[in-house]
Amino acid sequence: MARVASGFESSPSGPADHHLSLPLDHHDKKNPFNLHDDDERECRTGNVWTATAHVITAVIGSGVLSLAWSIAQLGWIAGPPILLAFAFVTYYTSILLADCYRAPDPTTGSRNYTYMDAVRAYLGGKRTTTWICGFVQYVNLIGTAIGYTITASISMVAIKRSNCFHVEGNDAPCHVSNNLYMALFGAFQLFLSMIPNFQRLWWLSIVAAIMSFAYSSIGLALSVGKTIERRVVSGTAFGYVASSSIEKTWLVFQALGNIAFAYSFSMILIEIQDTLRAPPTENKTMKKASLRGIIVTTSYYMSVGCVGYAALGNQAPGDLLTGFGFHNPYWLIDIGNICIAVHLIGAYQVFCQPLFAFVEAWAVQKWPKSDLINHEYKIFLPFSKPFKINLFNVLWRATFVVFTTIVAMLLPFFNDIVGLLGALAFWPLTVYYPISMHIAQHHLKKWTGKWIALQGLNVGCFLVSFAAGLGSIAGIVGDLKKYAPFKMD
């Protein structure tokens, strides 16, 4: 299929399309004609700032606004320390994972383009281990995409309801359906999903990161204002007093799941690292980006979570802005919810681009001679460079967006399922695999001091993830009792 209608021109894509046939060396700033890296792929252009933006976009989801509720379940004694503990574990294991981008040497070895590639390189003797890693990673990415569709629609509905409350009073029913707003969100994603790869996504991550700071700051400002107005710090040492010890246990477990999911970005760390230029070496840049990202996000988590709890106490809602812990000033709440929706538009792409790339690379490998999969078409637009599209990529990405939108409409409580997926993914992707690959990389012997410490961290995080998973299951069971498809809020 060499030519199509006027205005389009086809060209081969797939692996061969990612580089010229020129035998060029590693990217060198002094050589403007050096267009490719040491693996003959298009030169990476990412730096510590773009990587930090990706990390912040991935970590600071709308979940930051649920942290006041999480701390309300844990109380002042346990809540803040647990937040800090998750931050430390996430940062430490991200350092270990950053060294796995290349193998066998972390600075000069062959590149691993995805998390699965890294697991295969270091733990390749166990094929099942690699496939379990891929299954957990990509199922979690799909779940996150569905959850973000729901959460963004909730924020858009909250704007409508906020204005309704302002006009008709805080006790007015103000029922609004989420479905229209889910469809709107899906329409945006249909357009943005045509961004070809993660490296071209840097500008969207920066916008999304700015939005996350904006709505987090609004939540913080509203909490500070309410605390000053009341002139008292709310909350108790042990948090919300449940009707029974069993209920309290489930709520604590759910809070752990929320916090674990709030810190999850390891599943796309390798993919972020694959956007970085060198020198300096990619692992050094990624470690700096991880440190900056975790410091920024933890500062926001601590301030928004703790101040939100201080303002609203044990009755803190699941979301400071959409849960209507605050009703006024309504225009500021509206701005906050707009920022949440814009942020999630970008975050959706940050999490979906690795999945898009995985399926497209698999298709190229499976059908190397297919014109549908291995040809790109140039669309000549006036006053701009030709725009390249691949029909398979367009069809697959559009199908995925439509699928996630429909599932979100059918299961409006899917956030609880995403919480379960997050709880299940935290231990293997954030802890187990980075630790196992580090042990293999450095040939650590069993029962040495460091090996024991790493395995202790491994077991401890497994127990936390297991407990969080149980709490999420309890939440899902409760949702199913009142579930109705396309229910009005």
N-to-C terminal Cα separation, in Å? Answer: 50 Å
CATH architecture: Orthogonal Bundle
The CATH homology group name: Hydantoin permease
Shape: globular
Largest sheet: 3 strands, antiparallel
Strand order of the largest sheet: 1-4-5
Our count of helices gives 14
Care to count the β-strands? 5
User: How helix-rich are the residues, as a percent range?
Assistant: 55-70%
CATH C-level name: Mainly Alpha
What is the chain-wise order of helices and strands? EHHEEHHHHHHHHHEEHHH
User: Measured on Cα atoms, how large is the radius of gyration?
Assistant: 23 Å
CATH topology: Hydantoin permease
Low-confidence parts: 1-33
> Structural class of the helices, strands and pairings?
mainly alpha
Kindly state the mean pLDDT as a whole number? Answer: 79
In total, the number of domains comes to 1
Strand content: under 5%
Pfam family, one: Aa_trans
Protein name: Amino acid transporter transmembrane domain-containing protein
Subcellular location: Cell membrane
Region (Disordered): 1-21
Map the helices and strands.
Layout (H helix, E strand, L loop, with lengths): L7 E5 L35 H12 L7 H32 L3 E2 L6 E2 L3 H9 L3 H42 L10 H14 L9 H29 L14 H18 L6 H5 L8 H31 L17 H37 L4 H4 E5 L7 E3 L1 H20 L3 H29 L6 H33 L8
Antiparallel strand pairs: 1-4, 2-3, 4-5
Helix pairs in contact: 1-6, 1-9, 2-7, 2-9, 2-13, 3-4, 3-13, 4-5, 4-10, 4-12, 4-13, 5-10, 5-12, 6-9, 6-10, 7-13, 7-14, 13-14
Task: Quickly describe the structure.
The longest helix has 42 residues, at 127-168. The chain is mainly alpha-helical. The protein contains 14 helices and five strands.
